[in-house]
Prior knowledge:
The chain is α/β, with parallel strands linked by helices. The chain has a single domain, classed as 3-Layer(aba) Sandwich (Rossmann fold). Helices cover 35% and strands 14% of the residues. Strands 3-2-1-4-5-6-7-8 form an 8-stranded mixed sheet, with helices on both faces. A hairpin with a 2-residue loop joins strand 7 (208-210) and strand 8 (213-215). 43% of the residues are buried. The mean pLDDT is 91.
Amino acid sequence: MSLVLVTGASTGLGLAATTALLDAGHQVVMHARRADRVEDQSVLDRVHAVVTGDLADPGVTVGLAEQVNAFGALDAVIHNAGTMRGPVIETNLVAPYLLTARLRTPGRAVFLSSSLHRGGRTDLEAMAVLGGPDGRQSYEDSKLLVTALAMALARSSPATPSHAVDPGWVPTRMGGRGASDDLALGHETQVWLATAPVGTVQPATGGYWYHRRAQQPDPRAEDERFQQELLDRLHAATGVALS
Length: 243
């Protein structure tokens, strides 16, 4: 039995992953912006704990990490929370970075990417939230950067498996009704990476996955120089360093 933190679990892929973990006998620390946003309220009675807060706010994110640390060491974190509008870099990138920096080191880390990461920009100098003047951060930018973050962590902390997952275009609140991918397949890879027996996932770390199959991410996400530049920018922007 594993203890897993799932962020952004009020609906969609996060809620589906939470339910699948619970059904398999695992314990879940469930994050939602607000408890009343959880689409299936019955899940609240089944989880190990619920933590709430807006991950677009770095101060809230740090405080949330402190709450989670009180529950003990996590076996895995599924960084599922995300948005396509508004503070996309803060929610999709900065929050996973801060949680990684402030949580007690989990056994595994799973980051939600997207096939759209291939259209993201690498111009960190321009991105306002990372210290630059340009406020035009996009969903594509955020997913390229969080994929690079996952790859950077896999390289720098090989003892903690770190993976990125493309869940596909699935019919969630974010994806919309017209999405063409299967919702069940969209969350199964995250659950598998978080709980699979040691030695059964190959590559053991640094994978980019789509429906439990390893894929090749955009080469920019695997560029070690770019990864280090991203980590340096995140450190400078947040004042928080990775341990």
